[in-house]
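Section 3.1: Structural characterization of target chains.
Under the original work plan, the team committed to producing a structural model for every single-chain target entering the pipeline before any wet-lab resources were allocated. The record below documents one such target. The sequence was received from the expression subgroup and is listed exactly as submitted; it comprises 415 residues.
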Amino acid sequence: MFKRTSVIGLIVLCISTIALSDTSFAAKGSDVLTGVTTGKRKVIDHNIQRAKQNAVSDALEIALQNAFAELVSRQVFASHLDFLYDQILSHTKDYIITYRVLGGLANNGDYIVGVESKVDLKRLEKTLADARISNVHTDKPVILFFIAEKTPSDLLPKYWWGKNPIPYQSVAEKIIITRMLQERFVVVGNGADHPDPSFYNITFASIYDTASAKALGRELKADMIVFGKASASEAINRMGKEKTFTADINLEGFFLETGEKVITSQLQAVVKNDMDQEGNIQAIAKAASLSAQDLSEKIDAYWSRNLRTEQTFDIKLEGEQFLPRFIALKQQFKKMPEIETLQAKEMSSNSAVIEVVYKGKPSQFADAIMLKTFESFGLEISDVTETQVTIRFIEKGQADRVEDSGNNAGPMAAP
């Protein structure tokens, strides 16, 4: 079956890969994660072929786990193990673009394989985005909020990060995050279960330590952090016999790629109430609603202006049954508001090159077009550069193809 030298070499490969496969992959591209993993299964009833297929499935599951870990923070990974096993690993073959078996051997009743695979990161990202398990690239930024809150009944501001944090449910934070989610922004670290900075070896010097906040945001794979405070107090002025309460919410947004402050939002609200505590909370809630609207508009404007600028690049189209499929794709282009203009540069019976002016980067165009579906065919994006996106028309089911390499490559086993 194998020469002795080949067996020894494979054992070395398998041992080294097992040691590394849980934490690293060989290479990562913009939309594909390529690496080597191993799988091992017992040989039952002398059925080596079945053991080999199951071992390959295990190796592919490890590859997909590695891809999941690449896209999310450690905390998100730990808190979504049920989703990983129930929704992702149960459909492993949907995320494997190609694989090849590097080698296999029967050893002490087991069958061991080494498998090189390519994982479709874009498809995995979409799955996570649809499930709101953020940390993924979308047309809206991923945001981590740090909002300290204080009313007159509080001796010190309440916050969840930094030294001696005080557990609390921030009224302002809850209202603002709810509005941001409605506007399709992705928010990480929200809710009662906030991330623990010490888990990432991050120590806040004070509650206003924005450098540590940025570091935590990067660990959670956020695009931006919003940092600030909300406060309320009784006002001197009255409305008739009723007391009035004022609230201030001051927030700053930082773009984590550069670390620069790019957003400033300062809102104030006044309410009347007979009860002190109710009045303060009501004032914060009113200011938070105004702040959420202001913040949403400002971040949207910044994101569109700076990260969704118009770019000109080529779309190269090719494939079988070209003309009807090209016409169907052009109909989808017309439904994409980000496309400013389309102009044919080259045309033939089975290919075309079109110049497009697009509100965004070529990679963002590729993300958007991969969401389009057609009844009789699919799309394969084989190349994305700064100047060109290459799209090939493929038959239904062709995306599940297997990259055969030598006699050791076999058909994909169902996970």
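The chain has ten helices and 14 strands.
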